[in-house]
Amino acid sequence: MGEAPEIQLQILVEEHKVDENTVEPQTNGSINQSTIATRPRNYKWWLLMSIYTFFLLAGQSVATLLGRLYYDKGGNSNWLATFVQIAGFPILTPLYYLPSYKSSSQNTNNSNMKINPPSVLLVSGMYVGLGLLLAASSRLYSVGLSDLPVSTYSLICASQLAFNALFSFFLNSQKFTPFIINSLVLLTISATLLVFQNGSSGSTPVSKAKYVMGFVCTVAASAGYGLLLSLTQFCFQKVLKKQTFKVVLDMIIYQSLVATLIIFVGLFASGEWKGLGKEMEGFKLGKSSYVNVLVWIAICWQVFSIGSVGLILEASSLFSNVISTLGLPIIPVFAMVFFHDPMTGIKVISMVLAIWGFVSYVYQHYLDHRNSGIGKV
């Protein structure tokens, strides 16, 4: 990762300083749901969006493939696989101490003095609730990835966009248009088709029962993740009532801390920790590779978090999820190369439907931005 996050934040801080002097504060304490409307679309904005998108897609793809590698080469602890998805959040804490970021945070606090901050009890309850949901979703994702071919798993994960839109209808006043409905139907069919996929396809054969269990867990995890994004946006709008980089960073770190503690307790309560030494000894690629795989899974998921956080800050949680869904059809291609997952006819049809649903969803957002004038440079 190097110095890239610091360079991005320095650019971001400069844009925040410009925005604070040019955009009038909102007197009702609510935030604009689309931050794109208040930011100039200059080359810095496009550069940030490109970097954040790359971080999200690269982190998600590599972390998912490494997660499958962990299981294929002898790993079998779902609790440990879940733990490394979340526990890497401390590598984000240095972002708090960037000098330019701290000065920008002080200016932002001064500009938001009229907004009454929420109570500590309310904010704490918010982080605990979101952390519980994050822990549950991550646990279900781990079970799904352990029981399914990585190509099938990634295609089912595309259903998270449909769940996100559904929950956003109730929590974020998301409007259902023909294009949104078309997207929901296509993504639902795309995931449902994979029920008929042969469970033994892929690098590691699994029974039909485990395949069904993996399918159900992955769909449930996608629903949980979609709900998590909608609740996060709801908390920005109704509880925190502001959307600065510090607030978004707090959201990621504190809910990850809660989720990490929950998964840590689960790891020891389940007794799986007793077999980790034996698991490392029997890992097909060796002990050092075992540690490296787990460490890089943790790092890659935090790279994904940086990209996701950046897109939420610069656009919205829905836009971040759209970009995440865009990367899911990429994973089956890499899975075919590295894990020799067969690209069956059902998977091809499912992939086409998922991409079609994604395009339909993005086109609706394009129409929204164009009609509101946001699409104008």
TrEMBL record:
Key word Acyltransferase present: no
A GO MF label: purine nucleoside transmembrane transporter activity
Alphabetized SUPFAM superfamilies for the sequence: Multidrug resistance efflux transporter EmrE
Regions crossing the membrane: 45-67, 79-98, 119-141, 153-172, 179-199, 211-236, 248-269, 289-311, 318-339, 345-363
UniProt similarity note: Belongs to the purine permeases (TC 2.A.7.14) family.
Sorted UniProt keywords: Membrane, Transmembrane, Transmembrane helix, Transport
Keyword Nucleotidyltransferase among UniProt keywords: no
Pfam families: PUNUT
GO CC terms, sorted: membrane
Protein name (database record): Probable purine permease
Membrane topology: Multi-pass membrane protein
Main location: membrane
Localization per record: Membrane
Superkingdom of origin organism: Eukaryota
Upper lineage: Eukaryota, Viridiplantae, Streptophyta, Embryophyta, Tracheophyta
Species annotation: Hibiscus trionum
